[in-house]
Give the backbone structure.
Amino acid sequence: MSLPERTQTGVATNVMLSARNAQNRPVVNYSGTVTLTSSDPLVVLPATVTFVNSYAQFKVTFNTSGTQTLTATDNATTPLTTSKQTAVAAPLVATQFVMSLSERTQSGVAANVMLSARNAQNRPVVNYSGTVTLTSSDPLVVLPATVTFVNGYAQFKVTFNTLGTQTLTVTDNATTPLTTSKQTAVSAPLAATKFVMSLPEQVQTGDGINVVLSARNAQNQPVINYSGTVTLTSSDPLAVLPATVTFVNGYAQFAVSFNTIGTQTLTATDNSATPLTTSKQTAVSG
């Protein structure tokens, strides 16, 4: 039996059982069912568990502090049994939150935020499952009103829409509330000034070719908030391609088939007031 030497009350623990022979080799044809018992009167565990290919796996939650024993016994005529002890400690208590939020964000672009519940020694408290309220100094922010922790962690997205230094604050609803705040510098979103197209220099007629378009700014940085729609055209009158394609997170992908031999051009043009456009040539052979 594999059972950690130390566990916490109220926290589910993984247990693995393995059927072995006298030489301690796994017995892959063993498929017995064992009964599970514990010295902990408040334990939560399945009454029985069945082996598959010599192994059985389950979860057990101890709820009484101190040294506790877990026992597994099969129902054979000559029963097999094993026991193992674990030191069950009181659960860690969350005394603080740690927030990960990028120091720099862009207005209108969703940013990932991660929260971790920690104890006084800054260790993760995996049994924390509280719900926190989210607020921000940005009056135009888009974020969930609340978020709930799972196994001591919570993750969500926030979109700031006001330029400057903005603060994100999380507060739980405990009697003595836990709270944390973090600032981020919100800048204007990057503006797309060009497209970059990936198209092979040589292709064969009739072959489906994957093409990727990337929206870039003047410094050639990807503009992930660009979500425009572009019109696709080609010098090949027999080309097979979508009429339009829409960007997602600054990228667009589609397939094109050229069917006229020679140098052919593919062009993408958006429908903005000042249209962005790009073209690329490829040598089409038979």
